[in-house]
Amino acid sequence: MLDVQLHFQKAEYITLAIMKQEYSIKTNKKLYNFVKYFTPSIFSKLPSYTQFNAGLNSILPYMVFFLKIWMQINKSRYQGIYYVDSTTMPICANAHRYWVKIDLGMASSGKNIYGWFHGFKMHMIINYNMELYQSNLRLDQQTM
Description:
Blueprint: H1 10-22, H2 28-38, H3 49-58, H4 60-75, E1 82-93, E2 108-112, E3 115-127, E4 132-138
């Protein structure tokens, strides 16, 4: 019987997610190829690309937990000046909202200075050192 590990451990996926941010890798496909060709000694038993994507998606609750801890650490230090900003995270054009299935019914239509969109809205508060102080993802733009 073959002793093949089909999936990485959660810690390995978290490490890869941090690498993706640190090296400014834009897509999961580029991250997969980076791991495959440049780190074969570290990640020797690479799963398939589909399993790789599923593993990266499975660590989202852990990453949100780390983000909340980091924001609590930053809240404990008063920095003086804070900046508030909000940005849209559109999934598609508003005209295509009925055909898009990736939002699981959580996204809604909203309007910004560029026009109508279908997606989410992210609110962030940062200090003058560009450290994240608080973040909020709005699922319902109708209340804004």
